Amino acid sequence: MGAHHSHAKKEDFPNLNNDQINALLNNLKKHTTSTTFSAADVSTILPYWGEYAKVAFENLARKEGSKKGVLPFSLLVQQANLLEGIASEQADGLTNLFGDKWREALVACSRHLLSLTAEDAAALLSILRTDKSSNLTNLLTANRLAAELVHLPFKELLEMQSTPPLAVLNGKTSLLSRSAQVVLRAHIPVEYRQTWQLLFSSNEHGSSFAQLTHQVDGQGPCFVVVKTTKNRVFGCYASHGFHVGPTYLGDTLCFLFSIVPEIRVFEPTGFNKKYCYLNIQQETLANGLGVGGSDINWPFFISEEYGKGMATPHSSSFEKCDLAGETNFEIDTLEIWRVGPPPQKKKERSILDKDPQAQALLEIAGRQMHSEGFRDAKPILDDEEDEE
What we know:
This protein has helices at 3-6, 18-29, 39-45, 52-64, 73-83, 87-98, 102-113, 118-130, 136-142, 144-149, 155-158, 178-186, 202-205, 209-216, 351-354, 356-364, 383-387; strands at 36-37, 71-72, 168-170, 195-201, 222-228, 233-238, 245-249, 255-260, 264-266, 276-279, 288-291, 300-303, 308-310, 328-339. α6 (87-98) packs across α9 (136-142), α7 (102-113) runs antiparallel to α8 (118-130) and α8 packs parallel to α12 (178-186). It is built from 17 helices and 14 strands. It has 2 domains: 3-158; 168-339, no CATH class. Residues 366-388 are annotated as: Disordered.
């Protein structure tokens, strides 16, 4: 084993943890004991880089001013360390390796590691190209997809068991393409990215708003995804889920999104707090599930009269978007996915704990409280929880 492998230390690569360093060295052992690498070595060690392995070698050689056809392995390891750093370091690493081809290189890595179709890969590339920021550091800071994909080039070398940036789906989907899963996953909190549970599917549960309401009410953060009869696919992310009632839930983590004809995410404007709404059987209020609107102006709304929806292109709550391509749409397929763990159920507490006056009246009447000896001395919920 060469010295460059055996003497690698944590302080030499501050952005890599010990497990990553060990994995990196063990993976390099499989390919070479030399202290240098050639363009062919890059293609062998990192085959999922495809044509961008040669691009990376040529860029690094040009940067080093080397014409020997080989480069020190420490140079490649340095780039892996940069891509695990802060945005400015990641920008340096991408530029060192791929220059202005960094978008194409990241998508090439994604296509291999995530088993993407050509269509899925094209969708990711389209999103990266949409961001026209001339400052790569700022782009990596603001663009959540780029910030997720930047870790992929050295992923298989740094992790003994590579885990791609895709959630585990508990249920079958006909609406969430793999590219859509990657994009949506990158836009939600880290703690909700691992497992998604299918709560409702019109393919499985039928066309019933009552059933939809039963399945989603109080189930926590979720995605709602709709396919219309005109083949548009879009939806929303509800950061706090939905609860039946006349009030809005959620915060600025909520967003709207389009999947077909193209994948795009539309962030909240912060102008108001009209996020997620679910109400039924009211005479004076909107009846249905919606995000970002009220009355007859909703960027996304599913009517209680199942099968019908509304998507107006102008809303003060979210960035301008025309999700359905028409104001009133008809639903072909609908899916709702909970992200993260199921909500914890609160235990019921005795009416005597909730209402001390009831307990006092029983004692005045001389009634014995037979259940007192079988209950915890302290109430399960405090008064503040009762008021929520």
